[in-house]
Amino acid sequence: MELIADLGKKLTLLDQAALLDAADMLADASAELEKAIAAAKTGPFDGYLAAMEEHLHNGDPLQARTVHVPAGRPAAASPPFTWRQSAVDALTLKKFQEVADWSMPRMLYLLEKYNGFGYRMRRVPTPYLWSFSNLYEKGKFVQDGRFDSEAVSKQCGAALMLKAVAEG
To answer: Is the C-alpha dihedral spanning 75, 79, 83, 85 positive or negative?
Structure first.
C-alpha cells in the first residue's frame, strides 16, 4: 500500500534532536508511570489505566456512554466504565484485533487511520504522528470538524515516540 510506504519514508526523515526529545519525554513519562504503579501497588498497567478518566474513543467521561462520535459506546456493560473497558471497545470497533502486520509503517498507518485522514486533505502532516518533529510545524483540528491552520499541537507525535522506543 502506497500510504504505508510513504509513512516508512517519512520515518527516515525525522530529525535526531526531535527523537532525543521524544526519548526524554518517554523517560519522564515512564518515571511518572512507575510512581503511579508503586502507589497503586498493582500490576504494571492497572495503576496507569486507573488514572485514565476519559474514553479512548473520543475523550468523553467514563461515567457514561460516549456522546460524541462514536456515540453510545461502549455498547456492552453499564457505566461507569473503566478505561480498559473503553479502550478494548474502541480498538475492537476499529478491528485492531485482526491486524497481523505490526511493522512501524503499518502501526503509523493504523494510528493515523484511527485518528482520521483529515490532515491529508489539507496537505498538513498529522500532528498525531509528527508533532515535535521536523516534519510538522502547525495546523490541527481543535475539535471535531474544526481545523485551525495556526494551532500547534502540544503533544508529542506517535511516530517520534514509537521510533524512540524502537531505537531504545
So the answer is: negative
